[in-house]
Amino acid sequence: MRHACWSTGRWVLVILGALVLAGLSWPVLAYDQYSDGTATGNCAACHETTIGGFQSRGVLHDAHTINATGTCQACHTRQGDIPLTYSSGDGTLNKGCIGCHGSPRTGGAVDGAGLRLHHANKGVSVCADCHGDAAPPAESVKPVYYTLAGVVQTNPCNADGKEDFWNRDTGLPDGKGLDNDGDLLVDAADGDCAPVTCLDNDQDGYGSPGDPTCPRGPTIRARSRPTTSATTTATPRSTKSRMTGSSPLRTRTVTRGAPSRRPLSSTTS
User: Could you tell me which residues come within 8 angstroms of residue 187 by beta carbon, excluding any fewer than 6 positions away?
Assistant: First the structure.
């Protein structure tokens, strides 16, 4: 009996050991930091190009600080650290890379679904080793940083050109911007960013009825119209009112026209 118990225990240890070894050898390649401290690890393996990336405050780093945000802790947690992809040290701009490159979700959550889908559609599948995402929001949905002070970008469809400041080969604007939803259709080329026409029949800025594409939104508000509290009656030209006595309420009307004729008194013969 004792021998049987030891055999069972040994099998348990063997199975546990195999699971541990399998876990250690499994490729966990989704990255929680931009780099591993070198120019060849994590995101840096592709984004540290010959013209310079983020490492050692390269061209990519400077492009972001000049054209995206001057708030260092929108990306960093502390000075000199390697930025986390999902968190940073600013009180408000605290989402790291996914603040601009991620997707807002219900309840205030943010994830990198669009960014990961973009990489997967480009043939870079390492993110899928750890993540299984719901479909990201449309291209036209603002990343969470786009609504906050301290960030230059405000329009996810790049209507103002402010997403367009970097080309990985030249470091110059490339006329594209960002692929927020990961379908490889960028900004204006994406149907999500197709221009819409506001239906506003009465031209008050609100929809007709409830069109959310109008400048003042879908709400239709009742508008008060000016009213006249008293009406004015024209006075005939043939009459004129004159003030009499000391009271302003007493008037005497004089009629202009042909002189009146007195009736002739009758005489008796």
Answer: 139, 156, 157, 158, 163, 176, 177, 178, 179, 193
